[in-house]
Design a protein that fits this description.
347 residues; Heat Shock Protein 90; elongated
Length: 347
Amino acid sequence: MSVMYRTALITFTAAVLFSLILSVTIFFSFPPAEWSMLWEQRVLDLPFIYFLLIITVFAGLTAGLLAGNYAKNRLLAIRSQVDAVAKGKKRAGLEGEPLQEMKEFEKSLVVLEHKIAEQTKTAQRLVTEHAREREKSLQEVVAEERTRLARELHDSVSQQLFAASMMMATINETSPPEDETMKKQLAMVGRMIEQSQLEMRALLLHLRPVALKNKTLEEGVKELLSELTEKVPMEIQVKAEPLELEKGVEDHLFRILQEAVSNILRHSKAEKMTVLCVGRDGYVILRVTDNGIGFDVDEAAEKSSYGLTNMKERAEAIGGELKIVSVAGEGSYYEVKVPYAKGGESG
């Protein structure tokens, strides 16, 4: 039974009992000359006793419904406030409530909001400390090996793929075969080489150092996308603002960006990619969109895609939330929102 119905029932019962007790007390305190008058005297063509009972029930029902509706509205107000706190949204507040209990509840919500904000800042600070410890303990040989491997792949395999692509384009333009089947096969080989180039660039992207080192997030984003603009046949638009973030938060956001860009290069077949990294309304927003073929987000989640899982875990580690939307034939949308602690305070 809901609170509204329970409150209405209790109030109705109490009102009816009170009315009956009051009526009986009056009748016995000031008894009529003849008790039969209660049946003989008529009001609105009803015996007085029946009229009295109907009025009593109606008054109780009205009081019950009003009390139940009031209790329901109070609980809905409380629920909306709690939901806002749980989702990290701004609340309207309960300052105008006349009830003392609601005022006390508002004070408790303010304390809870403060604790959640402090926990978010603490989590970000712990992530930053962990990132610094990881950087200190990272063996130089690992970084050198990653750099060496990336350089060799770029200088050998990547260059060979580029040469093969140019040779295939030259063949198709200068000496195209007359056989239509052969033309289709050569075109297919050309597309395979182009896809291999994109796969290689995505792999080289993963081999880049995860940490930004001495760069800010804004500088890292612009440098990464500037390099891609020169190497991939894709229109890339970027808007990155200078943000004062903890080191660990910057590293995680940059790694999420790398993962999203890698997914787009390998799978989207997109012609355009847009990257946004700004601070708005107390949040850092990192958004990556493309106009590619899209994919089934639910299916990817069921298959526990390593890339998407890694992005989600990194977003949660810094108190943020990852949102992915993809529509077949229209592209994909990746967005991370993280509470913005500017200069150690909520921005």
